[in-house]
Design brief:
alpha/beta; UDP-N-acetylmuramoyl-L-alanine:D-glutamate ligase; four-stranded mixed β-sheet; 10 helices
Length: 311
């Protein structure tokens, strides 16, 4: 039995540290690379590595290429304790990204590519794997597969968390299928028309109740990550907000994915909503002090230590 099944994306990232972001028609249009490295990542892959680092049993359902980068990501997942028995290997190159990192601010720009042949299909989801899990996590990269998996998770009576970063015509169905939606802040306004994150979460709550009247799971948790401002969680009608920990930022790549992995860990541990946010914020903050996505995953001990600061 697995603690966490993850359905979604992976990537091999080519990270280039720059003295500043490029600016056309200025002296910064041509910059020397300060340093560079190859780092594995991807939304669900990074979340699962975080869960595994914190002692959870995990398995990955997603597609990889049959090229050297596909082998690289499979090896990295396995090395970090993520089961890859259910990963699909396709006859194409693995997803990859070029990440430009401003070494002064720690912010990044991401340029990515993914062959359509890598699309995960609903038929690729094995219901028996999901039924054996304590929790299912999905991202929004291959939405139909994510909706199928989330629906199976609901039917099995397990918690289903999400990584929702964009809004499409199928986002509403995905939000309705999961039990604990976790949003990136920029996705909430186009989804709800509300700029304020609290009002947006309450709007999502109302939408979910309208879609499934008479159910009770809509009284559960809704969460949004707020970057340097921390994170916010609506539990029933009660709002929780925890500020971010102040750290020296090296790279924000993967911080939201690490947040979700730590959120899942605390949720399965039975923590209260405020402690879930505090723990997840601590993990995300620690990840920002390191370069790379999966490379930045913190240990359970370091995360607990930072989460206790101020208690």
């Amino acid at each position: 039995m697995y603690d966490v099944v993850g359905v979604g994306a992976n990537s091999v990232d080519y990270v280039y540290r720059l003295p500043q972001f490029p600016q056309p028609d200025t002296a910064a249009a041509k910059l020397r690379i300060s340093s560079h490295l190859i780092s594995c990542g991807g939304q669900t892959a990074t979340t699962l590595c975080t869960c595994a680092a914190m002692g959870l049993r995990t398995t990955y359902i997603g597609t990889t290429g049959n090229d050297p980068n596909g082998q690289r990501i499979r090896d990295e997942l396995a090395r970090r304790g993520v089961d890859i028995e259910h990963a699909c290997v396709r006859d194409t190159i693995n997803p990859f990204a070029v990440i430009l990192l401003d070494e002064q601010q720690g912010e990044r720009l991401v340029l990515w590519d993914r062959n359509p042949a890598l699309r995960l299909q609903p038929a690729d989801i094995d219901p028996s794997v999901i039924r054996e899990a304590r929790l299912l996590h999905v991202d929004d990269v291959d939405e139909e597969a994510a909706i199928r998996a989330a629906s199976l998770g609901r039917e099995a009576g397990i918690a289903v968390t999400s990584d929702i970063e964009r809004v499409t015509g199928r986002t509403g169905a995905l939000v309705g299928a999961v039990t604990v939606p976790i949003f990136a802040e920029h996705a909430l306004e186009p989804l709800t028309g509300e700029r304020d994150p609290e009002r947006a979460l309450r709007a999502v709550r109302r939408q979910r109740v309208r879609l499934k009247p008479g159910t009770t799971d809509e009284d559960g948790m809704l969460c949004v990550t707020l970057g340097a401002r921390g994170a916010m969680l609506l539990d029933g009608d009660r709002l929780h907000h925890e500020p971010a920990h102040q750290v020296q930022v090296e790279d924000t790549t993967g911080a939201g994915d690490v947040f979700r992995g730590a959120f899942i860990t605390a949720l399965l541990r039975g923590d209260t909503p405020d402690r879930i946010l505090r723990f997840a914020n601590a993990a995300a903050a620690l990840s920002c002090t390191r370069v790379g996505a999966i490379n930045s995953v913190p240990t359970l001990e370091d995360t607990l230590a930072l989460a206790r600061v101020g208690l």
